[in-house]
Specification:
The protein has two helices and six strands. It has about 100 residues and is of the alpha+beta class. The radius of gyration is 18 Å and the shape is extended.
Length: about 100
């Protein structure tokens, strides 16, 4: 399985300077308050250098690149493939859906 870098932001550390979005507009946009909205997909190889530069330039040191395995398609319960290694919708792991009310 191949490895890929993904950009992550620490929202506690981020102070909304916006330098990251200036350096990497292909993957980072800003919300109405100037805080980054990060594209969750892996960084394409062509943007790897720019991503590293954006991480290094962050004045608050709130960005990082994390290496993870590239998601592979997974067959869902209907027998088709779910893109990006996601599973069919359902309750979060460790949680059960609430019981319907008795009528």
């Amino acid at each position: 399985m191949a490895m890929a870098d993904t950009i992550r932001v620490n929202p506690i550390e981020c102070t909304g300077h916006g330098v990251c979005a200036e350096l990497l507009p292909e993957l980072i946009s800003l919300d109405e308050w100037g805080y980054p909205l990060i594209d969750p997909r892996p960084v394409p190889p062509a943007l790897d250098r720019d991503a590293r530069r954006a991480v290094a330039a962050c004045p608050a040191l709130a960005l990082k690149l994390t290496r993870s395995e590239k998601a592979q398609p997974v067959r869902n319960s209907a027998g088709s493939f779910s893109p990006g290694g996601t599973h069919p919708p359902g309750p979060p792991l460790g949680r059960t859906p609430p019981e319907p009310p008795d009528n």
